[in-house]
Q: What sequence folds into this?
């Protein structure tokens, strides 16, 4: 596994390396009207209009209830509602679902994923992620890593990374222990690889893709790039519990015999998909302790390559 820094390539060098390779930039977004416009506009100006490094910017709107779609379109992105892509395949809420659906509306040989909630970042994120893929045909998946504004300690990847993902990888897949931030939302992958992978519909798409790439291609197919500094909004602790549940479900499927022994159940109101019932606790207005129960989707989409074309 190789490690690079975004300054290892100039834009001119990357354009020359790109040749006939096509690049799709995909931004999965849900209720990110406050930030998605700037993300799209800056990337379009820097990487499509100033230089021709990116061929298309696509925003996949995952059931937003705000003006995410309108803002993204006005900024110059091609916008698709996740639920409207291949409706014959049904739809699920979740980041992984949006990313999987992007395979049916993008054309790039290489796909770069960027989160829509970025607050402190720069357009070099995309060239940095493309560098290893364009320079070395043996590299197939590239993860970004970065410092967070105001950090005084290590390059932590967030609470779910440090408390769940990193220990899991250390125990089950130590070859991936060298990844600084395995759950980073900024990453890139060759289409030929991504369309061959099963994709969890929720937040486990990053760790599942890493584990499956390791198994199918080996650690030499994975690289990481230091992107500098990145800021984004933070989720509440209870929502992080949901994310951790999805992550552990995906990991359990990838352990020996995991497809048979994965700790998932079928929710009563979602008979056609896997879910786990997560119970959390809070104090009610009268001081009593009350359970907060959620059915957490742990479903996975099959490899897009195996899906029949639309009729």
A:
């Amino acid at each position: 596994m190789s490690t690079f820094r975004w300054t290892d390539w100039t834009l001119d060098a990357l354009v020359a390396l790109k040749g006939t390779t096509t690049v799709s930039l995909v931004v999965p977004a849900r209720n990110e009207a406050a930030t998605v416009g700037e993300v799209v506009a800056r990337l379009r100006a820097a990487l499509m209009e100033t230089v021709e490094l990116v061929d298309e910017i696509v925003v996949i709107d995952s059931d937003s209830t705000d003006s995410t779609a309108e803002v993204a379109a006005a900024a110059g992105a091609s916008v698709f509602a996740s639920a409207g892509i291949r409706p014959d395949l049904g739809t699920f809420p979740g980041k992984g679902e949006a990313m999987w659906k992007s395979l049916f509306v993008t054309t790039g040989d290489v796909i770069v994923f960027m989160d829509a909630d970025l607050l402190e970042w720069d357009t070099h994120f995309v060239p940095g992620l493309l560098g290893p893929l364009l320079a070395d045909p043996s590299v197939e998946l590239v993860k970004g890593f970065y410092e967070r504004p105001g950090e005084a300690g290590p390059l932590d990847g967030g609470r779910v990374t440090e408390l769940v993902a990193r220990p899991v990888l250390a125990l089950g897949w130590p070859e991936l222990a060298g990844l600084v931030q395995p759950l980073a939302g900024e990453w890139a992958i060759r289409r030929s690889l991504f369309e061959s992978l099963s994709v969890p519909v929720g937040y486990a798409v990053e760790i599942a893709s890493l584990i499956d790439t390791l198994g199918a291609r080996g650690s030499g197919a994975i690289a990481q790039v230091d992107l500098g500094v990145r800021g984004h909004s933070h989720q509440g602790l209870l929502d992080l519990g949901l994310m951790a549940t999805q992550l552990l479900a995906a990991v359990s499927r990838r352990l020996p015999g995991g497809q048979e022994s994965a700790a998932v159940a079928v929710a009563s109101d979602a008979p056609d998909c896997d879910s786990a019932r997560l119970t959390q606790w809070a104090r009610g207005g009268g001081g009593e302790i009350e359970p907060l129960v959620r059915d957490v989707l742990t479903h996975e989409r099959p490899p897009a390559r195996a899906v029949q074309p639309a009729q």
Remarks:
- Residues 237-253 form the longest helix (17 residues).
- Residues 260-271 have pLDDT under 50 and may be disordered.
- Residues 122 and 282 are 39 Å apart (CA to CA).
